[in-house]
Amino acid sequence: MADELKILVDAPLVVDPDADEELGDGGGAIADEDLNGSRLLLAKRAVMPIVIDGKAGGLVELSCTFQPAYGTRFTWARLTILLQTPEGIQIVDLAPRQIEDERPVKITVDGKGSLGLTHGPAEAGAERSMTKEYEVYHCAVQGSGIGTAKARWDFRESAHRQDGLGAEQALVMTLPVTGKVSGLLLLNARLARSGSGGVIDAVKDLILGDRKRDYSFSLEIPKK
Questions:
Q1: DSSP code string of 115-174
Q2: Structure pTM?
Q3: pLDDT confidence of 116, banded at 50, 70, 90?
Q4: How far is residue 96's CA from residue 8's CA, in Å, rounded to a whole number?
Q5: What is residue 34's three-state secondary structure?
Q6: Minimal CA–CA distance to 206: which of 33, 39, 41, 62?
Q7: Alpha-carbon dihedral of residues 33, 35, 36, 37, nearest 10 degrees?
Q8: How far are the Cα atoms of 1, 35, 81, 210 from residue 144, in angstroms, in the given order?
Q9: Which residues pair with 117 in a beta bridge?
Q10: Residue 168 and residue 41: Cα distance in Å, rounded?
């Protein structure tokens, strides 16, 4: 699945004006200037044509990176992708749908466009293809949206490690179309700062920057 990496969204995160007041166990606060550096980076890793039930379709692999401000971490995030064109587009399958640990997983796709995750060791020099692709998810991930135009992934940090959402997360969708696909991206995220003894003393809910709740994006699925 080698392809040119293309940035789809690179945007700052700001305080959600509709969220509840800032809360924390220690009564601390996160000043607005301390949020600087909190960003979302969504990039296209690869887009490739595939055959789904004998018809032309496409596989889209995205890379999602949550970048917290210095001294903070993300404890939770919800990324939503709303596909708008072509009209009537529906997601055949998406991955991951359920990840609870850090064991490497292999992503596979079959002739019906269905995606699968199987556990296995991360092989050195593994070929980048949809039948031999190993990913490690640093946090718990839950995805939904099959059969609709809306893909949603929830990310949650480990309650034991309490070390945030980790770095790059791979997200994959299969679509029953080729050509230009466009949509909107929405994000809600929770930023935390730890005080003495590692206890969280402040939390803020964030959205994509400049009070703009969604960002548009587009990509092209080749016909062959």
A1: EEEEE----TT---BTTB-EE--SSEEEEE-TTSSEEEEEEE--TTT---S-S-EEEEEE
A2: 0.85
A3: confident
A4: 20
A5: helix
A6: 39
A7: 160
A8: 23, 29, 11, 28
A9: 107
A10: 9
Q: How many CB atoms lie within 10 A of CB 223?
A: 9
At 53, list the tokens. Answer: 């039930």
Reading phi first (left if > 0) and then psi (alpha if -120 to 50, else beta), residue 166 is in: left
78, pLDDT greater than 80:
yes
Listing DSSP states for 51-93 in one string gives EETTEEEEEEEEEEEEEPPTT-EEEEEEEEEEEEESTT---SE
Q: Sort strands 169-175 and 140-144 into parallel, antiparallel or unpaired.
A: unpaired
Q: Judge whether 86 and 44 are in contact, CB under 8 Å.
A: no
Q: What is the pLDDT of residue 125?
A: 42
Q: Please give the single-letter amino acid code of residue 45.
A: R
Amino acid letter, 106: K
In whole angstroms, what is the distance from residue 9 CA to residue 104 CA?
27
Q: What are 141's two structure tokens?
A: 């991930």
Give the three-class secondary structure for 104. Answer: coil
Find tokens 């004006």 and name the residue: 17
134 within 8 A of 123, measured Cβ to Cβ: yes
Strands 150-156 and 105-109: unpaired
